[in-house]
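For consistency, the fold was encoded as tokens, which produced the following:
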Amino acid sequence: MSRQNAIENALACFDGGEYLEILGRRVAVPTESQNPDRLPDLRRYLDEEIVPAFEAMDHRCTIYDNPIAGGGPVLLAERIEDLDLPTVMGYGHGDVILGYADQWYEGLDPWVTTQRGDRLYGRGTADNKGQHTVNICAMAAALKARGRFGFNSKFMVETGEENGSAGLREVIEANLEAFAADVFIASDGPRVSPDRPTVFLGARGATNFDLVVDLREGGHHSGNWGGLLANPGVILAHALSTIVSETGKIQIKDWLPEPMSNSTRALLADITVEAGEHAPEIDPNWGEADLNPAQQVYSWNSFDVLAFKTGNPDHPVNAIPPHARAHCQIRYIQGSKREEFLPALRKHLDAHGFDMVAIEPPPAGNAAGFVASRTDPDHPWARWASASIERTSGKPTAVIPQLGGSICNDLFTDLLGLPTIWIPHSYGACSQHAPNEHILLSEARDAIQLMAGVYWDLGEPDTPDKQ
């Protein structure tokens, strides 16, 4: 049997409808990790969907309870063929964001996969059930072709990524030997464009916080008190204007990373960010003036105000409000001084006369606490993965230092010491985390071929050396 047989097996799984049938069952399990009532569904997803899939490939499956109250369980599937072979750690998350069923297009249900043209709708199709299902099916296709993997397989499926992977670090730390591997290969996030195979090597971190101006109890009539009482909304707006320019440029020096290296600039120079049909148009004059869009989102820091409230926007009245609050976020790359973000902000606000602006933790459920991390683009496993994908696709692989979003990549790079290779199977306009989430079937079909080639190549003798 051959590499081409593995790819043909994967295509038969997709074209014959098996992939869609499996994904339909998995989407039907409402694994909303932010909803405590769904905790039994998180376990059911592992027991009924993931364990049988790996047991069919002769993996030994262990489910670890989460030490965090209300946290979802973690599955580790393991097949060791030969201790002298490299061990490959896979990953997926079975939990999803809330369904928001009443906000989907007419005729769509977040827990039912529905095809309309090239789109397959359903909660989790893009993030992340559709992606780890591609990889599991591709693994089975490669195993069927060769009769063995030719590498040792470990595959983790957690059920709390949408809650910041709470408890996952503790599970890994308590079982370091069980989770030990030589390389991490997984899928999440979007490609740089729907038709360009992509590898990203890490993820930006995220620090969320609130800025609050709290001046007094209750509102006061704007006719009687306008011009006499300080307005917290105005104060907070001016405070924000000192943090970020009118074109989105960060103005706190300690928030910026080191200057971008020439090698990183070159790596991203030919990459165009194309999120696909119905995606918003990129604003060309936003952010750092000397960075192109790929450099801005994949290798720089950004600051955003995600929500701003003063008074009652839904039912405004003629009163000067007593409070104002802005929910803010810094997305940052590896090497940024994240521990200094909030102390630097406090110093900056005080220096500009805004000592009345308090810095507070964000509301529960909004603390995106992932840490930035990445693998060097010149790492042998990064070059190997890019070459494997190109062998199947016939296209140059887009290699980016880190995803613009955030995920628990640091647990694999920093805690387990693994090079991390992410091969995404979605696209930017997939409505991830929003109503009408979907994947492109054409992209998923392409992805299952690429991954079958990757899993075949992992069993060849020319992979990078074991650690």
